[in-house]
Specification:
Blueprint (H helix, E strand, L loop, with lengths): L3 H13 L8 H8 L1 H21 L2 H21 L4 H11 L4 H8 L4
Helix pairs in contact: 3-4
The structure holds phosphoribosyl ATP (PRT).
Length: about 110
């Protein structure tokens, strides 16, 4: 399995932007607008926290999938794709989080 599944889902999400609200869950989210999408991202984030705490790994995977899915709807709402996030992660590859944090702080 590779990142093709993310690209394929992104294509489906883009197609739903033109679809009638009653015809699909994603189309109805797009029609409700950004606040509705953000509300779903917040709800799914909270569900990820609860799943992590209950120690059930399958539950965590399912809630994380819900969060990734709704985050991708948010990206699509802004005309962005998962490849944009993957490129940012690629750019950060090999840069230690500690070094990056130090570089941000003004030196005394
Ligand atoms: N990956 C998903 C996916 N993951 C989760 N969901 C839906 O996200 C919704 C919200 O999940 P919740 O757990 O919050 O359920 P809920 O409480 O019933 O939701 P609300 O009524 O509160 O919105 C549910 O209806 C899930 O079915 C998804 N819906 C669609 N997809 C993908 O998006 C494609 C397009 O979907 P449609 O637009 O529905 O055709 C599908 O073919 C799938 O590939």
């Amino acid at each position: 399995m590779n990142t093709e599944i993310l690209s394929h889902l992104a294509d489906t999400l883009e197609a739903r932007r033109e679809a009638a609200a009653g015809s699909s869950y994603v189309a109805s989210l797009f029609k409700q607008g950004e606040d509705a999408i953000l509300k779903k991202v917040a709800e799914e984030s909270a569900e990820v926290l609860l799943a992590a705490k209950d120690g059930d790994r399958l539950h965590l995977v399912r809630e994380m999938a819900d969060l990734w899915f709704h985050s991708m709807v948010l990206l699509a709402h802004h005309g962005l794709r998962p490849e944009d996030v993957l490129m940012e992660l690629k750019r950060r590859e090999g840069i230690s989080g500690l070094d990056e944090k130090l570089a941000r702080k003004p030196q005394p």
